[in-house]
Amino acid sequence: MDLNAVKLFVQAAEAGSISAAARRTGIPLPTLSRQLRKLEDDLGMRLLERGPRGLALTPAGNQLISDAQPALASLAQAEQRLYDASGVAGRLRISVPPHLETLWPLFRAFGRRYPAVTFEVFVTDRRVDLVADGIDIAIRVGERGAAGYVGRTLTRYRHRLIASPKLLAHHAISSPLDLTRVPCACWRSPGASVWHLGETQVDLEPVFITNDYLHLLRLAEAGDVVTEVPPFLAARGLERGQLVEPLPQHPLPEHPMRALVVERRSIPPLVRQFLDYASANVAQALGISL
After folding, report:
1. Tens digits of per-residue pLDDT, 138-148?
2. 176 and 240 co-located in one domain
3. Do 95 and 149 lie in a common domain?
4. Is 2 helix (H, G, I), strand (E, B) or coil?
5. Which of 20, 29, 223, 242 could form a disulfide with 237 if both were Cys (CB 3.0 to 4.6 A apart)?
């Protein structure tokens, strides 16, 4: 039985209607209805009946709410005692893209500072539904947000155009348009075959497209392609001379890294504390000079 769904059930029962509960919680009505239906499906019984005067509890619903309300109150009191003891506590559920392994030290440092915090990190390149997937914070790159979400920009950075000395020994690149005659690999996204380098737009015919930046990095290191990757992935190869930037005077566009949360009247204290900490420390964790 999903605890979040039980909380939504109690809120709907207390509000007297699903629409009122949606307004109270800031959760979209279709999402809240779907969660309640799933709870009923998981239990195999009806909990709520819609009547002319709003929601009515079934016998099973009455039993669940009589048990759930004191249990949820006890959990809230336990959480508050943790806050009273250490200031920050609870479970933090975060979604991050696969190529942001460099954020793990940030999570560990936050956990050492606040030992009563536990992390649940969902690594995926899909755009999660924060409510349906039970996510507190979604960290995304180049994301302007969506209806029902609000965001905070944690940092900004530019991808690095990279190639191996081996490739450049056979392909001279002195201007962006030279890239049209060189094997290139691109990140899989709308407009993947177009690079904006400074004020020049380059229309490519890539030999390889993927949604895995580590694969792009390995292709560049092997001398197979020119590609673009986040700076924290390119840093080691550039420092060691395995990679070089063929056109440093023509920078790629800047990308914002944002933390998205569900829009509501107040952000939970733990979420707010992590957002403040990440804003102050994420650039250092990624090795980005601002």
Report:
1. 999 876 656 67
2. yes
3. yes
4. coil
5. 242
Q: pLDDT tens, 191-211?
A: 778 999 999 999 999 999 998
Residues 171 and 233 both lie in one domain: yes
Q: How many angstroms separate the CA atoms of 260 and 144, rounded?
A: 9
Long-range contacts of 52-57 (CB under 8 A, 24+ apart): 54/16, 54/17, 55/12, 55/13, 55/16, 55/17, 55/18, 57/13
pTM given for the model: 0.66
Q: Phi/psi of residue 75, each to 5°?
A: -65, -40
- Of 139, 141, 105, the residue nearest 122 (C-alpha): 139
Among residues 83, 100, 132, the one where a domain terminates is 83
What distance in Å separates the CA atoms of residue 171 and residue 161, rounded to the nearest whole number?
A: 15
Range of the domain at 122: 87-154+256-286
Q: How many domains does the chain have?
A: 3
241 phi-psi bin (left φ>0, alpha ψ -120 to 50, beta other): left
